[in-house]
Amino acid sequence: MTHHRFLSLVLLLSLPLISPPGLSATEARTLKDAYHDAFLIGVAVNPAQFEETDKKGAELILREFNSISPENVLKWEHTEPRDGEFTFAAGDRYVAFGEQHHLAVIGHNLVWHNQLPAWVSQPPAGAEKLTREVLLDRLHRHIMTVAGHYRGRILGWDVVNEAIADGTGAYRDSVFYRVIGKEFLVMAFKWAQEADPHAELYYNDYNLDQDDKKRATAIELIKYLRANGARVDGIGLQGHYNLTYPSAAKIDETIGMFADLGLKVMITELDVQAIANQSISGAVGAFPTTSTRPPANAAKRWRGWGRSQPPKPLTPEQQTALAERYGEIFGVFWKHRAAITRVTFWGLRDADSWRRYASPLIFDDNYQPKPAYFAVLKAAK
Ligand code: XIL
Predict the structure, then answer these.
(1) Which of 29, 270, 362, 365 lies at a 20 to 30 A Cα distance from 185?
(2) Per mean pLDDT, which range of 52-56, 230-234, 283-287, 318-322 is the poorest?
(3) Is 162 a known active-site residue?
(4) In whole angstroms, how large is the CA radius of gyration of the chain?
(5) Is the pLDDT higher at 111 or at 291?
(6) Which pLDDT score is estimated for 291?
(7) CA angle, 327 as apex, 318 and 155 as ends, to 5°?
(8) Which stretch of 11-15, 113-117, 220-224, 335-339 has the lowest confidence by average pLDDT?
């Protein structure tokens, strides 16, 4: 056998290995390749994946994606669980995994009202009241320490997450807003820039493409930050969608509006509930169809109700509906590929998803691509 022939044989034999599971060698295009010239394709990762105990998960991530977001490990409750005590072990492994495999590493997040340890909102020992000065100090130290720890290694940070309320256009009544005032937003962006000058800085929220008042406030927020000398590079539309909401037209319009502000647009936490009107029986009842937001602790409730078993597999009709919806959404993203810099799925497999009850992702529990995966591939023209 000639050298050349031998090489072809090796290549041929190795093709099934580099194809996603369930794909033949001829269909060996991957998501990151298909969207290579459009935007990054990311996925939120958990410790089992980035520590590679979930080997299949890690392999699939490296085959299909070129960006990662930390599903939980860089949130305040993980990085500073106690006043002034920082823990970076898990975060360091997350970042190292990304660097080792040349992925675009995202930071999520620096300031959020959720997964915020209780001490942050409490007065210091002996004091009666949490003062503005104390909370500003805590915020400053947190941002400088966490963003500073990863300085130069993070492509972009979700600096502030979910600071706007639903349905009213008001700022969210978080401890930061209540105790510091609206300026906490300016301070957060300025400190993040100081801590890691080369990291991109994002504002990240959900339902901006669903709730016009919320979107209007987000636009006002961007202008307010800039008017006060803070740099903001991008907007994160979380993208927790369902089969109906938000409409493709609203997503389209919203991306356009943020792009017009000169922002990089990112879809940061994409998942699509495959089951309309999904309810967790015995728990809170049906999710409202008009909201793309599941109950905050839905995944925990699912487990709490003794449901360690996976939900019923989707019917072929449900698979098709999910695929069509993903195709529709990615059609919009493709159209806006000049403004969009990254689309990140909020989890790899349905089994990894915080909305597992609604089978919202494009890989099933067995790491197999669902019809929705192929619809996403197809939308890249
Ligand atoms: C979720 C995680 O996926 C869950 O594991 C965790 O229990 C709760 O948070 N908006 C965000 C994400 O910005 O950080 C949230 O992630 C989902 C909603």
Answers:
(1) 270
(2) 283-287
(3) yes
(4) 21
(5) 111
(6) 41
(7) 115
(8) 11-15
C-alpha distance from residue 126 to each of 121, 130, 294 (Å): 14, 11, 39
Nearest of 356, 375, 348, 269 to residue 314 by alpha carbon? 356
Distance 362 CA to ligand 1 centre (A): 18
pLDDT of res. 310? 75
Structure tokens at 213: 């008042």
What is the predicted pLDDT for the residue at 57?
98
CA of 353 to the centre of ligand 1 (A): 9
- Residue 31: half-sphere exposure toward Cβ, Cα within 13 Å: 28
* CA of residue 354 to ligand 1 center, whole Å: 7
Q: Which of 346, 350, 352, 355 has most ligand 1 atoms within 8 Å of its beta carbon, as the pocket-test mutant?
A: 346
Q: Using a 6 Å cutoff on CB, does residue 210 contact ligand 1?
A: no
**Ligand 1 centroid – CA 114 distance (Å):** 9
Please identify which of the residues 64, 80, 162, 200 carries the catalytic annotation: 162
Is the beta carbon of 207 within 6 A of some atom in ligand 1?
A: no
* Strand 104-111 to 67-70 pairing: parallel
Q: Given this model, what pLDDT does residue 303 score?
A: 59
